[in-house]
Amino acid sequence: MNASINYIELSKSVQRDANNRLKHLITLEGLSRDEIIELLDLAQLYVRRPGELPARDRSLSGHTVANLFFEPSTRTRVSFELAAMRLGADVVNLDMQTSSRVKGETVLDTIYTLQAMHADILVMRDSEPGLPAHVAQHVAPHINILNAGEAHVSHPTQGLLDTLTIRQHKPDIKNISILIVGDLMHSRVARSTWSALTTLGIGEVRIAGPEHLLPPANEFYGAIRYTDVNKAIKDVDVVMTLRIQKERMASAHIPDDNAYCREFGLTSARVKLARPDAIVMHPAPMNRGVEITDEVADGKQSVIQQQVTNGVAIRMAVLTQLSRKN
Ligand code: ASP
């Protein structure tokens, strides 16, 4: 997993144009505090209360967004689609089960096909690390690549939507503590959220989970590591739990669901150890009864549905911002 560092370095260098402007969004690493705040502020303008009509404008009018998801997705794919439609773009969703990749076509040939049809914003999810950066190096100069989930390495729009959600509840980010608990080893969400929060100067990051699911020591620099969640959660302002990414593990490493819930799951009793006004987050999909109980997932401190709402706003902000730079 240490190899993720090399993919990040490549992504950092290819995602900017000759004027150092963000042209693609592949990683949050290397983004400045101002760039992150600009995206969060723009997204905040797109947030509407439940029951209100969604925000709309025409900033993507004339553009064509293609969603290429080579891994399963519900929230991310739908929110990119809604975001693009609400900004006035044409949107195509490729069904990757029936696409030519399963017939042996290379990803680049699929990309060139979309490019030839004047799709100019390509949203990609894949299990292969480094693929978005590779594609970004080969597309025509007017194309934007948006990483919608890259193996265990990066999920930049999720990192931004998590940060926006935290900022809405805890604006004084420099003075708060967050616990990220669970399968950090395989989590692109944890990596991207950590990256954004660290750039914004968050007060304290704690990480906790079974030893074999914690990341290598050279990642999550500065975070305090725990294997005892009851200690880790003490007095934190934000608790984020993660799904166990069974699809990225050898079967021998997959923990037993009940034992995992007992030791690492977010139960009501455990959440009481955090600050009374702590918020509870999960990027979803959730395994209820494993990393989080129903009571906590649907409880007063949960902001999980707000994360989903913010996901559309963040994707609108990212699409607007990148297409401005065309
Ligand atoms: N939806 C998130 C992701 O794509 C989290 C997860 O799958 O557990 O990484």
What do these coordinates show?
- The chain is of the alpha/beta class.
- It folds into two domains: 3-154 and 308-323, Aspartate/ornithine carbamoyltransferase (Rossmann fold); 156-303, Rossmann fold (3-Layer(aba) Sandwich), CATH 3.40.50.
- 37% of the residues lie in helices and 13% in strands.
- It has twelve helices and nine strands.
- A five-stranded parallel sheet has the order 7-6-5-8-9. The chain has a four-stranded parallel sheet with strand order 2-1-3-4, with helices on both faces.
- Helix 6 crosses helix 12.
- The longest helix has 21 residues, at 304-324.
- The chain is globular, with a radius of gyration of 19 Å.
- The two termini are 34 Å apart.
- The model has no long low-confidence stretch (mean pLDDT 94).
- The site of aspartic acid has 6 residues, from helix 7.
Question: What distinguishing features does this structure have?
Answer:
37% helix; Rossmann fold; single chain; binds aspartic acid; five-stranded parallel sheet; 326 residues; alpha/beta
